[in-house]
TrEMBL record:
Pathway terms, separated by semicolons: Cofactor biosynthesis; NAD(+) biosynthesis; iminoaspartate from L-aspartate (dehydrogenase route): step 1/1
Additional record remark: The iminoaspartate product is unstable in aqueous solution and can decompose to oxaloacetate and ammonia.
Organism: Neoroseomonas alkaliterrae
Residues at the catalytic site: 220
An MF annotation (GO) of this entry: NADP binding
Protein name: L-aspartate dehydrogenase
HAMAP family xref list: NadX
Keywords: NAD, NADP, Oxidoreductase, Pyridine nucleotide biosynthesis
Residues annotated to bind NAD(+): 122, 190
Top EC class, one word: oxidoreductase
Length: 269
C-alpha cells in the first residue's frame, strides 16, 4: 500500500464538509488531519462527532498536512494556496477560477517542489481535451446554463445591474473568455477555468453563461474543434442543497482526485 497522506481541508461548506465526512469514513492511503473555517466553533461542532476528529486550525496551519484541499470562499484562496505551496505540499483547489489571475503560484510551486492538482470538478471530458491540446486546437467553448438562483450575487451581474431573479425566459448574461468569466462569476464558472487550463488557455477559451428559469440542474456543454477530434459533451449536475452555485458531484470529484494520489491503479490521463 502507498504511504499514508495526511489531508487538510480549508472550508466546511457544501464541498468541504461532504469531503471531510467521506475521508473520516475511511479512504485507503488518506487520513483527514486538519480543517479550517471562518467560524471555528461551528467547525468544531461539525467534526466533533467524527470517528477521528481532525484538528481545527487556521488556514495557513493546514500547510502542515501533505495535501491541502481548498474548498473555501474565493477571497481566502491566496492565503491558503500560498501557505501550501511555500511548504512544498500538494495543493488541490476547488476555486480553480481564482488560480487564473495568480499563475505566479504555479511558478512558485515549481521552485518549492509543490504540486497543484486541479480536480475535474463539475465538468466532464478533461482527459479528451488535454489529449486534443497535445495537437492543434482551433477552438474551445463552454456554454453554462443554470437556474437564476445559482447565479445570484455574481460580481458581473452586480456591476451591470442585472437582476437575475427577474429573468423569466432563457437569457444569456455573459459572453467572453474564461479569464473574464472567472473574474465576473468566481463562484460559478470554475468549470470554465479548469477547461481553460486543460486546453488552450483562458484567453482563447470562450464562455457563455445563461440564466434559464426552466433549468433545474447546472448544465455545461463543451465544444472542441481540434485536428485530432471534434468533441461535443454535455453534463447536467444536480445543484447542492447547501449552495446552488455548486453541484453535488464536485466533492465526489475531489474525493476521486485524492484517491488517485495514492491508488495503485489510476485510470485516465
Amino acid at each position: 500500500m502507498a504511504q499514508e497522506l495526511t489531508v487538510g481541508i480549508a472550508g466546511l461548506g457544501a464541498i468541504g464538509l461532504h469531503l471531510a465526512r467521506a475521508l473520516d469514513a475511511g479512504v485507503q492511503g488518506l487520513r483527514l488531519a486538519a480543517v479550517s473555517a471562518r467560524d471555528l466553533k461551528k467547525a468544531q461542532a461539525n467534526v466533533g462527532g467524527f470517528r477521528q476528529p481532525p484538528m481545527v486550525v487556521s488556514n495557513p496551519e493546514l500547510a502542515a498536512c501533505d495535501v491541502v484541499v481548498e474548498a473555501a470562499p474565493a477571497a481566502a484562496f491566496e492565503e491558503i494556496a500560498t501557505a501550501a505551496i511555500e511548504a512544498g505540499r500538494i495543493f488541490v483547489p476547488s476555486s480553480v477560477g481564482a488560480l487564473l489571475p495568480r499563475m505566479h503560484l504555479v511558478e512558485r510551486a515549481r521552485e518549492t517542489g509543490a504540486r497543484i492538482v486541479v480536480p475535474t470538478g463539475a465538468l466532464l471530458g478533461l482527459d479528451a481535451v488535454r489529449a486534443a491540446a497535445e495537437g492543434e486546437v482551433e477552438s474551445v467553448t463552454i456554454e453554462t446554463r443554470k437556474p437564476p438562483r445559482g447565479l445570484e450575487g455574481a460580481p458581473y451581474l452586480r456591476q451591470n445591474a442585472i437582476d437575475v431573479l427577474a429573468i423569466t425566459t432563457p437569457t444569456r448574461v455573459f459572453k467572453g473568455n474564461a479569464f473574464d468569466a472567472a473574474q465576473g462569476f468566481p463562484a460559478n464558472v470554475n468549470v470554465a477555468a479548469a477547461l481553460a487550463l486543460a486546453g488552450i488557455g483562458p484567453e482563447r477559451t470562450m464562455v457563455e453563461i445563461w440564466a434559464d428559469p426552466a433549468q433545474t440542474r447546472n448544465q455545461h456543454t463543451i465544444r472542441v474543434e481540434a485536428a485530432a477530434a471534434r468533441l461535443t459533451m454535455t453534463i447536467e449536475n444536480v445543484p447542492s442543497e447547501e449552495n446552488p452555485r455548486t453541484g453535488r458531484i464536485t466533492p465526489l470529484s475531489i474525493l476521486a482526485c485524492l484517491r488517485g494520489l495514492t491508488s495503485t491503479l489510476k485510470v485516465g490521463s
